[in-house]
Amino acid sequence: MESKKYEIKYLPTFIEQFNTIIHHIKHELQNQIAAENFYNEAVKAIEERSIAPESFEVFKTINKVKWYKIRVKNFIIFYIVNGSIMEVSRIYYCKRDFKKLI
Question: pTM higher than 0.85 for the full model?
Answer without folding.
Answer: yes
